[in-house]
């Protein structure tokens, strides 16, 4: 029924909403205009009738009333004639004639104005009775003039009184008819007003019904389609893009429906693209970390194992062969991993791609032991799939994966925790240079300990808890001390002594090493300022990390410390590792030139352990070369090593460098180095690192030449 009604509406009404609304408003407005015009016209008619009533009917009534008054007046004049003398009768006759004349005029006037038949007939009778009445009082006048009193009285009683009575009755009848005519007119006016009220009420009711009908039609043709549009928009908002709006006969709604359908398709396509971007890796097409977390958000992780795989040497490939080659390696590695895990379709395996060259694989079996066995088989299968090198253009690249594995347990709250545990295991494998590692509580404890260690290191620097120990450097020619190497030590208030081998590399990884370097620099410069008068020739060398060589503001900080404590620049030395310089030699040389321009001395530490180029070595603005301890251990017992050290010493001298060997612990090592032409030594044989009173005592025993400078 609704469809039939809707179809009828669509056929009867225009297709455009604007036309339908205009038609509705026009119909309602026309009704109101009609009511207004009809009311005005009717009021004008009533007003006109009222005017006619005032001008005609009331005037006629007044005339009839005057007629009655004139009759009464003429009767009163007759009474006066009976008692009047001859002289006084003449005015009475004139008055009666005037009344008679006026009565005739009124009758004549009324006869032309009366339209009602009853009134005209009554007026004719009135005219006849008036003539009879006039004849009767004329007869009365004759008897009075003849002085016949009895005859006059008889005429009055037999003729005048009945004629007068009949005349008055007809006059009263005419007056009643006139009043009835007025009442009739009033009834007609009231009837017209009542009819007008009914018409206005009927038209108003019709307008209301028409408005309701138009509203109903508008609701069907406008509101309902808009409601459909609203519901479809809500479906779109909820992610349902399957429902499409059917075409309608309403032009605007049809256009909006079509636009909404187009928007639905476009939003669906874009959402699919966004979902692809949000949940899938664009390079490999694998699900990403977000997708993995969402998939296992509410799943039980019992017996689940997480494997995090990281491609070794991907950074080197990107830097050497370009990121395009690195992407090719990632795609091919992904393909091989997928091929390796395909046979395990029944093991609830899900493979995902994390950032960079990392992959994640979650798997599960019926028990923890089965899951561990599955992990071992998967790792073996993946490694076997990666045995063959990957061909990238003209390059053949070997790819190795490092695996971090974590097995869910009772403390694994969610997948994020499981992923974190696997990543901790991965970092542990990298630190041990192993191909794989399983997560353990000890790794977590170590990680938390390192986090606490960083916080404690910040507090140690702020609270001046670090210590600077100095190890002397001794010239071989005269066994004199010309300087010291500054070594940082940390006596933790709760953990006790913490080895530099533990916290210095950690500070470098955490990016906090420059704070340690700044502390050591300031401590060394303050010490040199204290020695300014007693030991003006002694120098202190501070070790500089690779991170410090990346900081372009580092030379400014060195210059600021020297200026702040008024220290001679050549008393301060900086020792830089060979590997740190060769990480980015061009930038390192620029920064070393800036440091050298401040007047300080520069040394290459641990020489021989890195991969420095002689071409770069001759460009370095350094003044000292330190031979690493690995070359001088039992030097006196190895001829080949002696030849190598001799070559290093001669090369250093050829470059005008002062050569010092570190880690000397025996007399034989010192003697051999003296014979090979080495300039100085440093190590336990000369002195252990010194601090506090031990350092003060050692300095007091220096030759006087050092004191005097």
Automatic annotation (TrEMBL):
Domain spans labelled GGDEF: 302-442
Organism: Undibacterium fentianense
Pfam families tied to this protein: 4HB_MCP_1 (PF12729), EAL (PF00563), GGDEF (PF00990), HAMP (PF00672)
Designated name of the protein: EAL domain-containing protein
PANTHER family: CYCLIC DI-GMP PHOSPHODIESTERASE PDEF, SIGNALING PROTEIN YKOW
NCBIfam families xref list: GGDEF
InterPro entries per the UniProt record, alphabetical: Cyclic-di-GMP_PDE-like, EAL_dom, EAL_sf, GGDEF_dom, HAMP_dom, HlyB_4HB_MCP, Nucleotide_cyclase, Rev_trsase/Diguanyl_cyclase
Cellular component terms per the entry's GO annotation: membrane
GO annotation, biological process: signal transduction
Keywords: Membrane, Transmembrane, Transmembrane helix
Transmembrane segments: 22-41, 200-218
SUPFAM superfamilies noted in UniProt: EAL domain-like, HAMP domain-like, Nucleotide cyclase
All residue ranges annotated as the EAL domain in the record: 450-703
Domain named HAMP: residues: 220-272
GO molecular function: cyclic-guanylate-specific phosphodiesterase activity
Residues spanning the signal sequence: none
Coiled-coil annotated spans: none
CDD domains: EAL (cd01948), GGDEF (cd01949), HAMP (cd06225)
